[in-house]
Amino acid sequence: MKKVFHKIASFCMALLVLLSTVSFTVDSHYCGDILVDSSLFGHVETCGMEVNKQSPLPECNISKKDCCSDEQQSISGQDELQLTFDKITLNQQLFVAAFFHSYNTLFEISEEVTFTLNDYPPPIIVRHIYKLDETYLI
């Protein structure tokens, strides 16, 4: 049970680090107030109601208000992860060494078994008391 919990916790922490460092962009296309398309990895599809910004003739000055709008939301990830250990201070090195040593000795199995009965001799048996207290039913 402990190994399973350890594996689940390790996987969740790795997923947390991955998701906190990834940045992505969400593109959305609205036609009026209605969401037409939303995309995470590519360009959004339009509804086909966009107004041409350039008129074909310079004499034509008809301007229409465009009802469509595109929104782009960027979610940036964390860039402050320390990937190299070149700038570790002396206090940090001492902490890592002490933690490593204490963690390794925590799970060390001691194979030394001491018997304390070797110092004390067994009692001297004068009579077999268990034989004297026996009762037999006939």
UniProtKB/TrEMBL annotation:
The keyword Signal applies. Keywords: Signal. Residues 1-25 form the signal peptide. InterPro entries: DUF8199, HYC_CC_PP. It holds the Pfam family DUF8199. It comes from the Bacteria. NCBIfam families: HYC_CC_PP. This is Secreted protein. It comes from Aequorivita iocasae.
